[in-house]
């Protein structure tokens, strides 16, 4: 049995992870930690799963790596600088694995990969992400990650940033710019997690859309991550690497 500690255990994702791990035949929950609880409660854990807050996740990860506990992380807010810090910690603990995934839903991972493949064929691209109104961060980690992947594919193909004729705009009307890609964030009660990647070209558009209707959509990816991180020392970013896409 894989011994799992859940960080953010009373949150929307954490509570769903606790149930999913308890229902899995090959793992069990040994610690449920939330804001204000001592991290020492993780002493029995082989793997921690973190769905907390961008402001909390780095301290949690530092603790896990220092104690040789593998980590599966869904919390958002990972910049290149943060990833470099994690790699630095892991260099001191070569047997420990950390998997950070902006999105654990299979369809979201596929949508990102399809978007990467489509990127070089279109002159312009914009992203719309839509989430529940209790989400703390905008744009979503998934949209930011998608923008970076698409931008990289466009650069490799020698494409310039997409052009348009906007000369006057209300602040925010054209969205946020992530790596030269416009990202628009919608927040509404009733939504869970949704993303559209829109490509445009003279005479045609292509829209790739993914919808998570329920947080259960993330659970197969999280459980796969828990199993895989045990045999993947070092840092892995993105579930696509685990799925071998
Ligand atoms: N990668 C993926 O597939 C997915 C990623 N996410 C991401 O996961 C994160 C959590 O989302 P969600 O579950 O909706 O958020 P919630 O706010 O529902 O849950 C977060 C929980 O973490 C707790 N928390 C805050 N700080 C700490 C800490 N230092 N130690 C332990 N627990 C802490 C919060 O407590 P309190 O409320 O008291 O602050 C809360 O109970 C977000 O960054 C979100 O974007 C979400 C869905 C899928
Ligand atoms: O906060 C959420 O709900 C989600 N957060 C992640 C993100 O910011 O991309 C993953 C998913 O979109 C749900």
From TrEMBL:
Residues 107-243 form the Dihydrodipicolinate reductase C-terminal domain. It is an enzyme of class 1 (oxidoreductase). NAD(+) binds at residues 8-13, 35, 74-76, 101-104. Its EC number is 1.17.1.8. (S)-2,3,4,5-tetrahydrodipicolinate binds at residues 132, 141-142. It is found in: Cytoplasm. Keywords: Amino-acid biosynthesis, Cytoplasm, Diaminopimelate biosynthesis, Lysine biosynthesis, NAD, NADP, Oxidoreductase. InterPro entries: DapB_C, DapB_N, DapB_N_CS, DHDPR_bac, NAD(P)-bd_dom_sf. One of its GO terms (molecular function) is 4-hydroxy-tetrahydrodipicolinate reductase. Residues 2-104 form the Dihydrodipicolinate reductase N-terminal domain. It catalyses: (S)-2,3,4,5-tetrahydrodipicolinate + NAD(+) + H2O = (2S,4S)-4-hydroxy-2,3,4,5-tetrahydrodipicolinate + NADH + H(+); (S)-2,3,4,5-tetrahydrodipicolinate + NADP(+) + H2O = (2S,4S)-4-hydroxy-2,3,4,5-tetrahydrodipicolinate + NADPH + H(+). It holds the Pfam family DapB_C. SUPFAM superfamilies: Glyceraldehyde-3-phosphate dehydrogenase-like, C-terminal domain (SSF55347), NAD(P)-binding Rossmann-fold domains (SSF51735). The active site is at residues 131, 135. Pathway: Amino-acid biosynthesis; L-lysine biosynthesis via DAP pathway; (S)-tetrahydrodipicolinate from L-aspartate: step 4/4. CDD domains: DHDPR_N (cd02274). Catalyzes the conversion of 4-hydroxy-tetrahydrodipicolinate (HTPA) to tetrahydrodipicolinate. Belongs to the DapB family. Homotetramer. This is 4-hydroxy-tetrahydrodipicolinate reductase. It comes from Amycolatopsis pigmentata. The gene is dapB.
């Amino acid at each position: 049995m894989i011994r799992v500690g859940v960080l953010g255990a009373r949150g929307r994702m954490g509570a769903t992870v606790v149930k999913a791990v308890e229902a899995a035949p090959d793992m069990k929950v040994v610690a449920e930690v939330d804001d204000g609880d001592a991290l020492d409660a993780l002493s029995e854990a082989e793997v921690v799963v973190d769905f907390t807050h961008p402001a909390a996740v780095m301290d949690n990860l530092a603790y896990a790596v220092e104690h040789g506990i593998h980590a599966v992380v869904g919390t958002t807010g990972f910049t290149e600088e943060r990833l470099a810090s994690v790699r630095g910690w892991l260099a001191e603990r070569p047997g420990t694995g950390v998997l950070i995934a902006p999105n654990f839903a299979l369809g979201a991972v596929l949508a990102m990969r399809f978007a990467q493949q489509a990127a070089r064929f279109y002159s312009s691209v914009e992203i719309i992400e839509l989430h529940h109104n209790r989400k703390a961060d905008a744009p979503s980690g998934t949209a930011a990650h998608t923008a970076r992947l698409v931008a990289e594919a466009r650069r490799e193909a020698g494409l310039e940033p997409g052009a348009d004729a906007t000369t006057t705009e209300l602040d925010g009307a054209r969205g946020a710019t992530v790596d030269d890609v416009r990202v628009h964030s919608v927040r509404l009660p009733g939504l869970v997690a949704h993303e559209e990647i829109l490509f445009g070209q003279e005479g045609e558009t292509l829209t790739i859309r993914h919808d998570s209707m329920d947080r259960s959509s993330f659970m197969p990816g999280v459980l796969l991550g828990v199993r895989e991180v045990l045999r993947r020392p070092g840092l892995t970013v993105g579930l696509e690497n685990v799925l071998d896409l």
